[in-house]
Amino acid sequence: MKRHGGRLLVESLVALGARKGFGVPGESYLAVLDALHDTVGRLDYVTCRNEGGAAFMAAAYAKLTGTPGIAFVTRGPGATNAAIGVHTAMQDSVPMLLFVGQVGTDMTGREAFQELDYRAVFGTMAKWAVEIDRVERLPEILSRAWTIARSGRPGPVVVALPEDMLRTTTEVVSLSAPLEVEPPQPSARAVEQAREILSTARRPVILYGGCDWGWAGARALQSFAERAGIPVVAAFRYQDQFDNHSPAFCGEAGVGMVASIRKLIGKADVILALGNRFGENSTGGYTLLSVPEPVQRVIHVHRSERELGKVYRPALAVHADPSAFVAALDAGGGLDGCDGTWAAEGRAAYEAGFDLPAQPSPVDMGQVMAHLREVLPDDAILTNGAGNFAVWAGRFFKFGPGQRLLAPQSGAMGYGVPAAIAARIADPGRMVVCFAGDGDFQMTCGELGTAMQAGAQPIILVLNNGIYGTIRAHQERAYPERVSGTEMRNPDFAALARAYGFHAERVERSEDFAAAFARAVASSTGALLDLAIGPEALTPRQSLSEIRKAGIAARAATA
After folding, report:
1. What is the C-alpha to C-alpha distance for residues 291 and 122, in angstroms, rounded to an integer?
2. N or C: fewer beta carbons within 10 Å in the chain?
3. Is 0.70 topped by the overall pTM?
4. pLDDT tens figures, 141-181
């Protein structure tokens, strides 16, 4: 049967398992939109308000579901708007496919209207960037793109689609199913070597990352850590992949790293690194481990061999699925050497971090977080974008095994609102709470229209202090008394949200939050609470002090 390229693409995506696509329509991929007309209920197209929001939604959908997020955008400005989501998907290590309409092949290389070379634009940002110029090759290249996005270290793939290729008809058969690539399994020798190294340790630490652990892997990691008495630290913004209520969990290695985590990593004699990529934020700006050969003996386990030795030369490099590796470790029983005191100290410091002094703010976020820890359901999803406000969702909530955090390792402002919408689309029955600074919120607040249209309204908490808080903190540290460019005049956020059909309130006192949040939960149309926080309430008092002492604030990527 003859079909045009747009239909061949969409039919293949359905066969691969794609169920949601996020995008802004464009004339360069009309044939794809034509094909999507017939896939409602199988592959639904979510009409977004900006390509950046669409790409954020695709990245967040992938992080939550483990399946590639799909985004469709038009050429030129559409693609460059979407770049922020591609960069975020890469740094988050989540699978994503961005399909970009392209000028016809007869115009290539002439700087035609909105023409770009997407292999050049996205070449250092994505795992792979490709342009399909012959309709007959569409299934072949799409299969490869899907596989690349999912395998090894997952990440984004960009596929450019010339519009004449999409219109061309062919009898080529569409794909029938995805290629399942078995992850590399650990060798018995590697597991035994790791056990030997860990058995000699007195101050071991487990540093884990990645968002593809799954229930079995997370349970095996928790079992091994608790039995061995080893403290567990999450890489930046991956704390939801481990039960924070476990006595082994000691917190997150991220922006504004607290002193107790710096001690655990810096003073460790052995670090078991599972699935993390040794980013700047999780290593204290590459200062807690010396480059390229750390004083600590590092065991690095990763699904991608390209991550092994990329920054640090480990004592043991293991190309294997971290879940399978830790399951094999756990099957071997306990370890000699570590008596659990080291882990207990780290856990005590983690628990002490929740004992906050009163915050200098009309709405005390310490009290807000204490309330949310009590009332949020066991399967709640929290999202946030970037800014000092993100510390509240990231450090002052204890994630149970069924709860999730969708937050950008890239430090991209504007991620929280689209991520929350994508989460509601992926799983409508779960409560989704988005934390957004006032500047962060205004990056993508237009996507409230997407939420209204899709019937996917989350609860949004806008932390409103009238400033770009992270940058103001940097200014006050580096250029005291000479701040500029960081104040904002904001609109009435509650009125804006009501215009999009949301329930919305302004909350000006801490004691009013609980009742307002209850009304937000009861709303069937989603809700926005505009929280009045003072300009001086940049971060929790003790956290800001630690940030300044560590010198990390100057390298923060959260604004």
Report:
1. 29
2. N
3. yes
4. 999 999 999 999 999 999 999 999 999 999 999 999 999 99
Instruction: Categorize the per-residue pLDDT at 534 as very low, low, confident or very high, splitting at 50, 70 and 90.
Output: confident
Q: Any idea which residue has 């209850």 for tokens?
A: 518
Tally of CB atoms within 10 A around 28: 25
Q: What is the DSSP letter of 405?
A: E
Amino acid at position 503, single letter: H
Q: Which two tokens stand for residue 185?
A: 């399994």
| Cα–Cα distance for residue pair 422/57, rounded to 1 Å | 5
pLDDT exceeds 70 at position 559:
no
Residue 292: cis peptide before it, omega within 30 degrees of 0: yes
Q: What is the dihedral of CA 417, 421, 423, 426, to 10 degrees?
A: -160
Token couple for 381: 């999803």
Residue 142 backbone zone (phi > 0: left; psi -120 to 50: alpha; other: beta) = alpha
Per-residue pLDDT tens over the stretch 264-288: 999 999 999 999 999 999 999 999 9
Helix (H) and strand (E) counts for the chain? 21, 20
* Other CB atoms within 10 Å distance of the CB of residue 387: 29
CA distance 63 to 56: 11
